[in-house]
Inverse folding.
């Protein structure tokens, strides 16, 4: 190495490595920050992203050269690159992994150039055909082909998968898939991705309606914030139908008129053609839609169009946070309270929290919107870090909030002669609704027929061989299913433990509820919407039938609750309002409340006033009682005080260290060592961290792995970070089969 050598820091996709230093060969132009390069890491060639030039080489290592420069124009714009670096630091995630999660697959051209230097498995494949592989259900004969067995296990866990995606995750998957097909164990299907939201149908442009006064106030505030060109955060708190989306549309239009870009994040489940149509009606083809059903080539095309400024607005689910929108002006997070903004695999980021950060750094306006804001977001407005805008009523004044009736099932009769879980109150309401020619939704957040199958002789519960959970009986498939790992087995004809001949099917899921309602409402057209009846396009079909009046009663899980506007539904029934309250999670109350308010909001969105029947065993629980009175402010007040008292977020900082492995004792030992290390750390920068655990996770075993967790609670982010950093040696020292994951600001407590 000579003193005149140019040195460049490169983020590489390898655990525990943030950036490595390489020499730029004399003949190569200097890689600009954000450009991809081919480099060697630990004798393996891979693709990394160039950061900045560095002055000094780390001591005592022999530097390797950059093998190839893959982008002349940096793929990642500077604003996004800085944001990704900060995100990685916040979540203690290696920058290379963050980049891997954020960046699109390579174009054919880049992949071709990379191919000269990097073996195929280190590149991301491109593919336009969505060929998928799925299991036929036939048992896997003994095979010595390890890759085939591995793929079989993978498919059993994850279900049908795109071959191109598999090839990326499991090298040799294509050949293994062919082998499984030859064995009759799997089959190949070519199909359109289900969740696809296409632009095939032209959408007529709409004219913005005149704003209501509260909308006007919010829009004015947002446009002045945009004019100020400084980062700021806003919370738009308004009931469903209060016109939040119209507020976003106006603010986005203003940002676009300033020549700036816009990003809208919505929960994946809410990313429906209906929603997309509203953005397209306003902005035409200046909007891209980013969703999980996109193929690699499409993702790449979207990225390029945004990156070049050809399209300046994007609507998408969680990962649209990383869209390379140029000159970001506004970032909207709709339904900000939704837990699905949290990524639970790989880099565990929270898209809402990071949207606030990205907007702040970019000098952009961040708009959070919800009918049931999270305690966290409301607290931002109380402490002056965000501005609150309230939309108190529905935008179209003729539509009123529904009337809610609580039915305490421990004191009320079930309907005579019917299923015990359908109260006579709900039954009467259904009959009356149908008699008026109106429609109803009945909500139950549990799919399948019977959630538990119990031996009547010994009481043994049929449970998953690889998870510590009971199997759910699905009648139409005649199978027992694990809802966590998708293990499936034929319904047993006797107890697996004592051989007893009779098994009781206990509890109720949507499949059983559907059957019970068919019986209880002769002549009514009953349909069901849950993950078993289909997601994406199939669920749109069911909802379209509902809108056309071809369904009288729709039974469903939370898929019926979210974001669908069906004006003709006037009755909503909730079978088990407190189903979620027993979850071992400090947010269980909040989540139940949000879900109930949202479900109730499905009733009477048209001109007829809707009504809601809430069946519960705990009518006085604040999450139930205040959902019934639709008093969001009162609930947030109760919840906020509870959190403050127990020192849960936003009144403390949490991190969960999750440890899992195939051997229980080994995993427990690692968790113990991490906990000891956390306890021993004394944060120097003030603030205290307290450590809970290690304890077996509530879901103690998942996919054959034993799970332990250590919860760290700190008074400040700095203290939390320091404590966690103190464990990095311990985490690295864990045996290979044991996985240790740090989850900062955890959402799932399971
Ligand atoms: P939210 O996003 O809060 O659920 P939406 O923006 O979807 O509410 O508005 C609900 C309905 O009211 C939509 O059909 C929308 O077109 C309509 N709407 C919104 N604002 C207005 C307005 N100012 N005047 C008339 N209709 C409006
Ligand atoms: Zn399982």
């Amino acid at each position: 190495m000579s003193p005149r050598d140019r040195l460049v820091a490169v983020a590489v996709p390898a655990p525990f490595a943030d950036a490595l230093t390489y020499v730029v060969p004399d003949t190569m132009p200097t890689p600009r920050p954000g450009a991809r390069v081919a480099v060697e890491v630990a004798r393996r060639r891979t693709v990394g992203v160039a950061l900045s030039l560095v002055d000094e080489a780390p001591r005592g290592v022999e530097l390797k050269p950059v093998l190839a420069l893959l982008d002349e124009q940096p793929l990642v714009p500077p604003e996004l690159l800085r944001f990704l670096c900060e995100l990685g630091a916040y979540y203690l995630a290696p920058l290379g992994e963050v980049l891997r999660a954020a960046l699109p697959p390579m174009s054919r051209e880049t992949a071709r150039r990379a191919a000269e230097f990097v073996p195929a498995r280190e590149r991301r494949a491109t593919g336009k055909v969505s060929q998928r592989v799925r299991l036929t259900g036939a048992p896997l004969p003994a095979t010595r082909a390890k890759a085939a067995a591995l793929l079989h296990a993978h498919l059993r866990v994850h279900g049908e998968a795109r071959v191109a995606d598999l090839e990326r995750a499991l090298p040799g998957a294509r050949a293994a898939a062919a082998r499984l097909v030859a064995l009759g164990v799997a089959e190949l299907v070519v199909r359109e991705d289900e969740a696809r939201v296409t632009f095939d149908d032209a959408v007529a442009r709409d004219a913005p309606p005149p704003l209501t006064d509260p909308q006007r106030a919010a829009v004015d505030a947002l446009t002045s914030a945009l004019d100020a060109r400084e980062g700021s955060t806003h919370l738009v708190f308004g009931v469903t139908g209060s016109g939040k989306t119209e507020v976003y549309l106006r603010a986005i239009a203003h940002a676009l008129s300033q020549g700036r870009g816009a990003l809208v994040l919505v929960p994946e489940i809410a990313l429906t053609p209906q929603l997309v149509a509203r953005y397209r009606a306003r902005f035409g083809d200046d909007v891209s839609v980013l969703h999980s059903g996109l193929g690699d080539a499409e993702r790449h095309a979207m990225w390029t169009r945004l990156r070049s400024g050809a399209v300046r607005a994007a609507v998408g689910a969680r990962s649209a946070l990383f869209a390379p929108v140029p000159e970001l002006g506004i970032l909207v997070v709709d339904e900000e309270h939704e837990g699905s903004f949290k990524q639970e695999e790989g880099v565990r980021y929270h898209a809402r929290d990071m949207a606030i950060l990205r907007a702040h750094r970019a000098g952009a306006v961040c708009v959070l919107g919800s009918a049931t804001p999270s305690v966290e977001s409301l607290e931002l407005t109380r402490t002056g870090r965000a501005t609150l805008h309230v939309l108190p009523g529905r935008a179209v004044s003729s539509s009123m909030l529904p009337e809610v009736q609580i039915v305490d099932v421990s004191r009320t009769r079930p309907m005579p002669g019917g299923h015990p879980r359908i109260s006579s109150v709900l039954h009467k309401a259904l009959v009356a609704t149908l008699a008026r020619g109106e429609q109803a939704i009945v909500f139950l957040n549990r799919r399948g027929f019977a959630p538990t199958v119990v031996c009547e002789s010994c009481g043994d519960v049929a449970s998953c061989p690889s998870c510590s959970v009971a199997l759910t009986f699905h009648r139409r498939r005649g199978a027992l299913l694990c809802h966590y790992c998708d293990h499936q087995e034929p319904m047993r004809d006797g107890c697996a433990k004592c051989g007893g001949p009779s098994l009781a099917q206990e509890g109720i899921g949507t499949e059983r509820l559907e059957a019970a309602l068919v019986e209880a409402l002769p002549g009514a057209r009953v349909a069901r919407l849950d993950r078993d009846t289909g997601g994406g396009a199939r669920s749109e079909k069911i909802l379209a039938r509902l809108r056309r009046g071809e369904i009288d009663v729709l039974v469903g899980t939370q898929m019926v609750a979210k974001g669908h506007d069906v004006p003709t539904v006037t009755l909503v029934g909730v079978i088990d309002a407190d189903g979620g309250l027993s979850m071992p999670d400090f947010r269980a109350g909040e989540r139940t409340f949000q879900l109930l308010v949202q479900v109730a909001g499905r009733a009477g969105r048209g001109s007829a006033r809707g009504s809601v029947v809430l069946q519960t065993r705990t009518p006085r629980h604040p999450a139930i009682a205040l959902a019934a009175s639709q008093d969001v402010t009162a609930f947030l007040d109760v919840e906020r005080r509870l959190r403050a008292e127990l020192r849960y977020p936003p009144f403390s900082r949490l991190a969960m260290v999750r440890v899992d492995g195939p051997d229980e004792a080994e995993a427990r030992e690692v968790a113990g060592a991490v906990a000891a290390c956390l306890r021993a750390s004394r944060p120097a920068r003030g603030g205290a961290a307290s450590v809970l655990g290690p304890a077996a996770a509530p879901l103690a075993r998942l996919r054959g792995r034993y799970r332990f967790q250590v919860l760290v609670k700190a008074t400040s982010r700095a203290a939390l970070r320091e404590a966690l950093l103190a464990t990095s040696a311990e985490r690295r020292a864990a045996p290979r089969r044991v996985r240790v994951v740090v989850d900062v600001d955890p959402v799932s407590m399971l």
Q: What stands out?
A: The mean pLDDT is 87. The longest strand covers residues 689-702. The pocket of zinc ion (ligand 2) is lined by residues 464, 466-467, 482, 484-485, 487 (CB under 6 Å).
